[in-house]
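REQUEST ID: PR-0412
SUBMITTED BY: lab tech R.K.
PRIORITY: routine
TASK: structure prediction, single protein chain
INPUT:
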Amino acid sequence: MRLRYGMNPHQIPASVEAIGAAPFAVVHGRPSYLNLLDAVAAWQVVREASAGSGTVAAASFKHVSPAGAALAGPIDPVTAGLFGVDPAADAVTRAYTRARDTDPKSSYGDLVAVSAPVTADLADLLRRVVSDGIIAPGYAPGTVGVLARKKNGAYLILEADPAFVPPAAEVREVYGLRFVQRRDEAPLPDGLPGDLRLALTTVRHTPSNAVVLVRDGATLGVAAGQQSRVDCVRLAGGKAEVWHRRRFVPADALAGIARVQDRVASQLRLAEAVVPPVPLAGVSLASDGALPFADTITEAARHGVRHIAEPGGSIRSTAVAEAARAHHIDITHTGLRLFRH
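STATUS: complete
OUTPUT:
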Protein backbone atom coordinates (compact mmCIF):
# COMPACT_ATOMS: atom_id res chain seq x y z
CA MET A 1 0.00 0.00 0.00
CA ARG A 2 1.33 3.43 -0.93
CA LEU A 3 1.29 5.80 2.03
CA ARG A 4 0.90 9.57 2.04
CA TYR A 5 4.42 9.91 3.44
CA GLY A 6 6.74 8.34 5.98
CA MET A 7 7.33 9.53 9.54
CA ASN A 8 7.67 13.07 8.19
CA PRO A 9 6.19 14.65 5.05
CA HIS A 10 9.60 14.90 3.39
CA GLN A 11 10.11 11.11 3.69
CA ILE A 12 8.58 10.04 0.41
CA PRO A 13 7.86 7.68 -1.14
CA ALA A 14 6.61 5.44 1.67
CA SER A 15 4.69 2.20 1.63
CA VAL A 16 3.59 -0.72 3.78
CA GLU A 17 3.25 -4.38 2.87
CA ALA A 18 1.24 -7.06 4.61
CA ILE A 19 3.06 -10.27 5.51
CA GLY A 20 0.35 -12.61 4.34
CA ALA A 21 -3.16 -11.52 5.29
CA ALA A 22 -3.62 -7.89 6.28
CA PRO A 23 -4.79 -7.13 9.85
CA PHE A 24 -7.20 -4.43 8.65
CA ALA A 25 -8.91 -2.95 5.62
CA VAL A 26 -8.93 0.73 4.68
CA VAL A 27 -12.58 1.82 4.60
CA HIS A 28 -11.95 5.51 3.98
CA GLY A 29 -8.99 7.86 3.71
CA ARG A 30 -5.33 7.48 2.85
CA PRO A 31 -3.07 6.59 5.77
CA SER A 32 0.35 7.89 6.63
CA TYR A 33 3.18 5.84 8.12
CA LEU A 34 2.47 7.09 11.65
CA ASN A 35 -1.29 6.63 11.27
CA LEU A 36 -0.75 2.91 10.75
CA LEU A 37 1.82 2.54 13.54
CA ASP A 38 -0.67 4.19 15.90
CA ALA A 39 -3.55 2.09 14.58
CA VAL A 40 -1.91 -1.32 14.94
CA ALA A 41 -0.50 -0.47 18.39
CA ALA A 42 -3.83 0.89 19.63
CA TRP A 43 -5.76 -2.06 18.22
CA GLN A 44 -3.50 -4.50 20.10
CA VAL A 45 -4.21 -2.67 23.37
CA VAL A 46 -7.99 -2.81 23.01
CA ARG A 47 -8.00 -6.35 21.68
CA GLU A 48 -5.96 -7.61 24.64
CA ALA A 49 -7.79 -5.47 27.19
CA SER A 50 -11.18 -6.65 25.97
CA ALA A 51 -10.11 -10.29 25.94
CA GLY A 52 -8.66 -9.99 29.44
CA SER A 53 -11.70 -8.25 30.92
CA GLY A 54 -14.61 -9.66 28.95
CA THR A 55 -15.89 -6.16 28.21
CA VAL A 56 -15.48 -3.42 25.60
CA ALA A 57 -12.20 -1.52 25.59
CA ALA A 58 -11.01 1.69 23.91
CA ALA A 59 -7.77 3.59 23.51
CA SER A 60 -6.69 7.04 22.41
CA PHE A 61 -3.22 7.02 20.79
CA LYS A 62 -0.78 9.80 19.94
CA HIS A 63 2.76 9.29 18.58
CA VAL A 64 2.65 5.52 19.10
CA SER A 65 1.75 5.95 22.79
CA PRO A 66 -1.58 5.70 24.58
CA ALA A 67 -2.86 9.03 25.84
CA GLY A 68 -5.54 6.96 27.56
CA ALA A 69 -7.16 3.54 27.66
CA ALA A 70 -10.31 2.32 29.38
CA LEU A 71 -12.92 -0.36 29.70
CA ALA A 72 -16.63 0.34 29.39
CA GLY A 73 -17.77 1.59 32.77
CA PRO A 74 -19.71 4.41 34.40
CA ILE A 75 -19.21 7.96 33.15
CA ASP A 76 -19.17 10.49 35.95
CA PRO A 77 -21.01 13.83 35.58
CA VAL A 78 -17.74 15.72 34.96
CA THR A 79 -16.81 13.50 32.02
CA ALA A 80 -20.35 13.47 30.67
CA GLY A 81 -20.56 17.26 30.75
CA LEU A 82 -17.14 17.79 29.22
CA PHE A 83 -17.83 15.61 26.19
CA GLY A 84 -21.59 16.03 25.95
CA VAL A 85 -22.19 12.28 26.33
CA ASP A 86 -25.22 10.67 27.95
CA PRO A 87 -24.07 8.63 30.99
CA ALA A 88 -26.40 5.89 29.75
CA ALA A 89 -24.67 5.73 26.34
CA ASP A 90 -23.71 2.35 24.88
CA ALA A 91 -20.62 0.50 26.08
CA VAL A 92 -18.27 1.41 23.23
CA THR A 93 -19.07 5.11 23.57
CA ARG A 94 -18.52 5.02 27.32
CA ALA A 95 -15.23 3.16 26.90
CA TYR A 96 -13.83 5.72 24.48
CA THR A 97 -15.15 8.69 26.46
CA ARG A 98 -13.36 7.35 29.56
CA ALA A 99 -10.17 6.75 27.58
CA ARG A 100 -10.14 10.26 26.12
CA ASP A 101 -10.91 11.75 29.53
CA THR A 102 -7.57 10.47 30.89
CA ASP A 103 -5.67 13.30 29.22
CA PRO A 104 -7.99 15.20 26.87
CA LYS A 105 -5.29 17.74 26.03
CA SER A 106 -2.97 15.02 24.73
CA SER A 107 -5.81 13.20 22.95
CA TYR A 108 -6.34 16.19 20.62
CA GLY A 109 -5.85 14.76 17.10
CA ASP A 110 -5.67 11.14 18.26
CA LEU A 111 -5.99 7.78 16.55
CA VAL A 112 -8.94 5.98 18.13
CA ALA A 113 -9.20 2.23 18.71
CA VAL A 114 -12.26 0.40 20.01
CA SER A 115 -12.80 -3.33 20.47
CA ALA A 116 -16.46 -3.28 19.38
CA PRO A 117 -18.25 -1.93 16.31
CA VAL A 118 -18.74 1.84 16.11
CA THR A 119 -22.24 2.93 17.06
CA ALA A 120 -24.21 6.04 16.18
CA ASP A 121 -23.47 7.45 19.66
CA LEU A 122 -19.73 7.02 19.23
CA ALA A 123 -19.79 8.45 15.71
CA ASP A 124 -21.61 11.51 17.06
CA LEU A 125 -18.96 12.00 19.75
CA LEU A 126 -16.12 11.60 17.25
CA ARG A 127 -17.84 14.06 14.95
CA ARG A 128 -17.44 16.69 17.69
CA VAL A 129 -13.84 16.07 18.78
CA VAL A 130 -10.55 16.56 16.96
CA SER A 131 -9.28 13.17 15.85
CA ASP A 132 -7.28 11.84 12.89
CA GLY A 133 -8.71 8.36 12.47
CA ILE A 134 -10.16 5.21 13.95
CA ILE A 135 -9.67 1.45 13.88
CA ALA A 136 -12.60 -0.76 14.88
CA PRO A 137 -13.89 -4.27 14.08
CA GLY A 138 -16.99 -2.89 12.36
CA TYR A 139 -19.28 0.08 11.78
CA ALA A 140 -23.02 0.40 12.31
CA PRO A 141 -25.02 1.58 9.29
CA GLY A 142 -24.56 5.29 8.63
CA THR A 143 -21.53 5.73 10.91
CA VAL A 144 -18.93 5.56 8.13
CA GLY A 145 -20.71 8.40 6.35
CA VAL A 146 -20.65 10.54 9.50
CA LEU A 147 -16.95 9.91 10.11
CA ALA A 148 -15.91 10.23 6.47
CA ARG A 149 -16.95 13.90 6.50
CA LYS A 150 -14.41 14.74 9.21
CA LYS A 151 -11.20 16.60 8.32
CA ASN A 152 -12.72 17.75 5.03
CA GLY A 153 -13.14 14.14 3.96
CA ALA A 154 -9.63 13.01 4.97
CA TYR A 155 -10.55 11.17 8.18
CA LEU A 156 -8.96 7.72 8.26
CA ILE A 157 -11.31 4.78 8.84
CA LEU A 158 -9.84 1.29 9.25
CA GLU A 159 -11.73 -1.95 9.83
CA ALA A 160 -9.74 -4.43 11.93
CA ASP A 161 -9.95 -8.17 11.39
CA PRO A 162 -10.64 -9.67 14.85
CA ALA A 163 -9.60 -13.11 13.57
CA PHE A 164 -6.17 -11.95 12.39
CA VAL A 165 -3.29 -13.94 13.86
CA PRO A 166 0.04 -12.04 13.71
CA PRO A 167 3.26 -13.82 12.70
CA ALA A 168 5.27 -15.34 15.52
CA ALA A 169 8.35 -13.32 14.56
CA GLU A 170 8.70 -9.54 14.33
CA VAL A 171 11.21 -8.04 11.91
CA ARG A 172 12.56 -4.49 11.84
CA GLU A 173 15.16 -2.98 9.52
CA VAL A 174 17.13 0.02 10.80
CA TYR A 175 20.26 1.59 9.34
CA GLY A 176 21.22 -1.44 7.31
CA LEU A 177 20.50 -3.90 10.13
CA ARG A 178 17.69 -6.42 10.29
CA PHE A 179 16.39 -7.19 13.78
CA VAL A 180 14.32 -10.34 14.34
CA GLN A 181 12.64 -11.36 17.60
CA ARG A 182 9.73 -13.43 18.80
CA ARG A 183 6.55 -11.43 19.19
CA ASP A 184 5.77 -10.54 22.81
CA GLU A 185 2.77 -12.72 23.60
CA ALA A 186 3.73 -13.72 27.14
CA PRO A 187 0.53 -14.13 29.17
CA LEU A 188 -0.03 -11.90 32.16
CA PRO A 189 -0.18 -13.66 35.53
CA ASP A 190 -3.49 -15.26 36.49
CA GLY A 191 -5.61 -13.74 39.22
CA LEU A 192 -4.58 -10.13 38.71
CA PRO A 193 -7.11 -7.50 39.81
CA GLY A 194 -8.78 -5.84 36.84
CA ASP A 195 -7.03 -2.49 37.23
CA LEU A 196 -3.56 -4.06 37.36
CA ARG A 197 -4.39 -6.16 34.29
CA LEU A 198 -5.48 -3.08 32.33
CA ALA A 199 -2.38 -1.20 33.49
CA LEU A 200 -0.06 -4.01 32.40
CA THR A 201 -1.85 -4.42 29.07
CA THR A 202 -1.46 -0.70 28.40
CA VAL A 203 2.16 -0.47 29.55
CA ARG A 204 3.08 -3.40 27.26
CA HIS A 205 2.27 -1.16 24.28
CA THR A 206 3.80 2.06 25.64
CA PRO A 207 7.36 3.05 24.66
CA SER A 208 9.85 2.45 27.47
CA ASN A 209 10.52 3.51 30.11
CA ALA A 210 6.82 3.50 30.88
CA VAL A 211 4.46 3.71 33.84
CA VAL A 212 0.65 3.55 33.72
CA LEU A 213 -1.78 4.51 36.49
CA VAL A 214 -5.29 3.03 36.49
CA ARG A 215 -8.37 3.31 38.68
CA ASP A 216 -11.85 1.83 38.19
CA GLY A 217 -11.06 0.42 34.75
CA ALA A 218 -9.61 3.59 33.20
CA THR A 219 -6.15 5.08 32.95
CA LEU A 220 -5.48 8.23 34.97
CA GLY A 221 -1.97 8.88 33.73
CA VAL A 222 0.44 7.41 31.18
CA ALA A 223 4.17 8.19 31.05
CA ALA A 224 6.12 7.04 27.99
CA GLY A 225 9.70 7.09 26.80
CA GLN A 226 11.36 8.44 29.93
CA GLN A 227 14.97 7.68 30.76
CA SER A 228 14.39 7.63 34.53
CA ARG A 229 11.92 5.36 36.26
CA VAL A 230 11.08 7.86 39.00
CA ASP A 231 10.47 10.51 36.32
CA CYS A 232 7.96 8.08 34.76
CA VAL A 233 6.09 7.92 38.05
CA ARG A 234 6.21 11.71 38.45
CA LEU A 235 4.87 12.29 34.96
CA ALA A 236 2.09 9.72 35.17
CA GLY A 237 1.26 10.88 38.69
CA GLY A 238 1.13 14.50 37.62
CA LYS A 239 -1.37 13.63 34.92
CA ALA A 240 -3.44 11.68 37.44
CA GLU A 241 -3.48 14.69 39.76
CA VAL A 242 -4.75 16.90 36.94
CA TRP A 243 -7.46 14.32 36.25
CA HIS A 244 -8.37 14.42 39.95
CA ARG A 245 -8.52 18.22 40.14
CA ARG A 246 -10.75 18.32 37.08
CA ARG A 247 -13.41 16.39 39.07
CA PHE A 248 -13.90 19.48 41.24
CA VAL A 249 -14.33 22.13 38.54
CA PRO A 250 -18.00 23.22 38.76
CA ALA A 251 -20.04 22.00 35.81
CA ASP A 252 -21.65 25.41 35.33
CA ALA A 253 -18.18 26.89 34.80
CA LEU A 254 -18.29 25.40 31.30
CA ALA A 255 -21.84 26.53 30.50
CA GLY A 256 -22.18 28.24 27.16
CA ILE A 257 -18.93 26.83 25.71
CA ALA A 258 -19.97 24.93 22.61
CA ARG A 259 -16.88 23.16 21.26
CA VAL A 260 -15.44 20.22 23.17
CA GLN A 261 -11.83 21.40 22.72
CA ASP A 262 -12.73 24.80 24.14
CA ARG A 263 -14.43 23.17 27.15
CA VAL A 264 -11.32 21.05 27.70
CA ALA A 265 -9.05 24.11 27.62
CA SER A 266 -11.29 26.01 30.01
CA GLN A 267 -11.60 23.08 32.42
CA LEU A 268 -7.83 22.55 32.48
CA ARG A 269 -7.23 26.22 33.18
CA LEU A 270 -9.74 26.26 36.02
CA ALA A 271 -8.35 23.00 37.44
CA GLU A 272 -4.98 24.65 38.07
CA ALA A 273 -6.50 26.55 41.00
CA VAL A 274 -8.42 23.61 42.48
CA VAL A 275 -7.36 22.03 45.77
CA PRO A 276 -9.24 18.72 45.98
CA PRO A 277 -11.03 18.23 49.32
CA VAL A 278 -9.93 14.58 49.35
CA PRO A 279 -6.66 13.08 48.09
CA LEU A 280 -6.45 10.75 45.12
CA ALA A 281 -6.66 7.14 46.32
CA GLY A 282 -7.14 3.54 45.22
CA VAL A 283 -4.80 3.80 42.23
CA SER A 284 -2.99 0.86 40.59
CA LEU A 285 0.40 1.25 38.91
CA ALA A 286 2.15 -0.89 36.31
CA SER A 287 5.80 -0.46 35.37
CA ASP A 288 7.31 -2.08 32.28
CA GLY A 289 10.63 -2.51 34.10
CA ALA A 290 11.73 -3.25 37.63
CA LEU A 291 11.48 -0.39 40.12
CA PRO A 292 15.16 0.27 40.86
CA PHE A 293 14.95 2.56 43.88
CA ALA A 294 12.66 3.22 46.83
CA ASP A 295 12.10 6.78 45.58
CA THR A 296 9.65 5.41 43.01
CA ILE A 297 7.51 4.05 45.84
CA THR A 298 7.57 7.34 47.71
CA GLU A 299 6.51 9.17 44.57
CA ALA A 300 3.79 6.62 43.79
CA ALA A 301 2.35 6.96 47.29
CA ARG A 302 1.99 10.72 46.75
CA HIS A 303 -0.49 9.96 43.95
CA GLY A 304 -2.70 7.51 45.82
CA VAL A 305 -1.12 4.30 44.53
CA ARG A 306 -2.06 1.25 46.58
CA HIS A 307 -1.26 -1.60 44.18
CA ILE A 308 1.80 -2.06 41.95
CA ALA A 309 2.67 -4.63 39.28
CA GLU A 310 6.31 -4.72 38.16
CA PRO A 311 8.76 -7.39 37.03
CA GLY A 312 10.82 -7.54 40.22
CA GLY A 313 14.39 -8.77 40.27
CA SER A 314 16.12 -5.44 40.88
CA ILE A 315 19.24 -5.60 43.07
CA ARG A 316 17.37 -3.18 45.36
CA SER A 317 14.05 -5.02 45.31
CA THR A 318 14.29 -5.62 49.06
CA ALA A 319 14.55 -1.88 49.76
CA VAL A 320 11.72 -1.22 47.32
CA ALA A 321 9.53 -3.81 49.06
CA GLU A 322 10.30 -2.30 52.48
CA ALA A 323 9.30 1.15 51.19
CA ALA A 324 6.07 -0.31 49.81
CA ARG A 325 5.19 -1.87 53.15
CA ALA A 326 5.86 1.45 54.88
CA HIS A 327 3.39 3.15 52.51
CA HIS A 328 0.83 0.29 52.70
CA ILE A 329 1.29 -0.52 49.02
CA ASP A 330 0.92 -4.08 47.68
CA ILE A 331 3.45 -5.20 45.08
CA THR A 332 2.93 -8.01 42.56
CA HIS A 333 6.14 -9.27 40.94
CA THR A 334 5.14 -10.47 37.48
CA GLY A 335 8.53 -11.75 36.31
CA LEU A 336 7.75 -10.07 32.98
CA ARG A 337 9.76 -7.17 31.64
CA LEU A 338 7.57 -5.41 29.07
CA PHE A 339 9.96 -3.02 27.35
CA ARG A 340 8.91 -1.57 24.01
CA HIS A 341 11.41 0.28 21.80
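NOTES: Residues 33-53 form the longest helix (21 residues).
REVIEWED BY: pending
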